[in-house]
Every structure is written in structure tokens, then in C-alpha cells.
Structure prediction request, 294 residues.
Amino acid sequence: EGSKEYIFRMNVFEKSLIRHAKLNSKTVSIENAQFGINKFSDMTPEEFQVKFLKLKQEPAEPFQPLSLDLWLGNKPIATTE
Amino acid sequence: RTQKVDWRKTNKVTAVNNQKDCGACWAFSSVEIIESMVAIRKGVLAPLSVQQMTDCARFGNRGCQGGNIETALMWLKSTNTALVSSKKYPLTWKTETCKLTNSTEGVTISSHATYGLVQNEEKMVDLIENHGPVAVAIDATLWQDYLGGVIQHHCEMNLNHAVEIVGYDLTGNVPYYIVRNSWGTDFGHSGYLYIKIGKNVCGIATSVSIVDV
Prediction:
């Protein structure tokens, strides 16, 4: 307590509280997500991103109905006259 | 359609992982869908080695520094690598030298695919219901502050995290996916979170991966 790191983390934590209040103020129904203090609340958004958000994925090609149906076990419908 | 599917209820999902300081969400989610498919096809639920995937997968993957679900599955299939149990190749939460290059004991995948299902989330629900859990790329920026409930708004679509979807629930006012995260059981609903179905919330339908074993 009182160290440089402590003061920094306290500031980060207080900013998190402001962010939670903003997010929760937009809640429109009881099914909506709730935001608040959790184990990440003393991390800056930048620290959180560097530590936990490391996926390097591009959007996939839109699905091909036929290939997707093969996964679902649906046989293509035969075309007849 | 079945209104509620939860693959956990039929014992097809292993315990929630904690990736700690290792940014290998791509390896966790890839391995998790393989575990689920082994349980569905063979009736055996057992944790497989995320560390093997982290250390050994190539094609641009960089262990705990980041990677990609699609290329991880591509690597597994094209090299016919057998994924061993997590007991045999346990987690260290660090990128290390690959210790297994030619194991014949373990699980190989028979096929895999990654689809963009934006505006086709009906298909995504079909896959979860009729095939099994899927792995998705997602924007988890907002999750830093998540406590619980169904995420419906305020989520961006910059794909930066990977998770497994283990079911869905269409019975309430807000239909949602049941999403398994890898940040420990003290996050969200015992490690899980809920995301609304239908509007590509958090980019959930942008890149959907499935496997078979």
C-alpha cells in the first residue's frame, strides 16, 4: 500500500468502475449482460489485450451450402423434371 | 429444432481451462472441440494436450504468443498428427520445444472446416445441434468487465480471441449461445458466458470451425 504500483493499480481500478457504470447504464432488460468488478479490474484495457487477446484469425469465407450440409448429414436434393 | 442444447449435460465437454498468461486461446479452443467430438463419436471424454498443440503446431502459429484455429486444425490434419492426452503432455503455460513429432498413440482428426456464417446463424445452431460443439473466433475486448447475463450489445467485431460454443438456449426472450471460455472457472458463469444468437454479436459467426475424428 502506498507504493507507486499500488497507486497506479488503484487508478486503473477506479477507471474500471467508471467503465462498468457506463456499460450497465445501457442495460435495457434483466437478460442483459452485467458488468462489474472481476479479476481483470485492476488491468488497463491495453494490458488485458496484450495478455489475453492474441488470436490472429481472418474472417472465414462464406459457407458453401453443399459442403455445410455434408457436415449435417443432409443429402443434396436431387433435381428432377 | 431442439430448443435447448447443452453438450455439457451429456458429458461431452471437459472441465473449463485456465490459459493464465499464455495467449494460446487458439490451441485451447481447437483442442476443446476435438475432445468434444471424441466424446460424441467414441463415448470417451478425456482432456487432450493443449501444450502439444501450443508447442508443435506450425503454419504461422506462435504458441503462447498467438495463433489461429483454422491453421491449427489444418496442421493437425495435413501432418496426421495424433493429439495425445494432457496427462502425457501436460500444460506448462509456456511455448516450449515440441516434444512429440511422430506419436501414433492419440487422436487424429478425419476432417475439419471453417465457415463464415454471418447472416446464417441458423446454420451455426444446426451445426451445434446436429454435429457438436464448434470453435469460433470472437471479439472479447468487452469481456474484461463481464460478470454474467447475455451479451447483446456494445461488442465490437475485431476477432482477437477463440472459444468453444457448447450449446444454445432458444427458450427465453433472448436466445443465446453457451460459450466456454478458457480464463478459469472464476470468470463469468463458472467459466462460461452467454451471447445472443442472431446478430453476429462480438463477431461470433464470422469464423466458425468444426472437426470430426
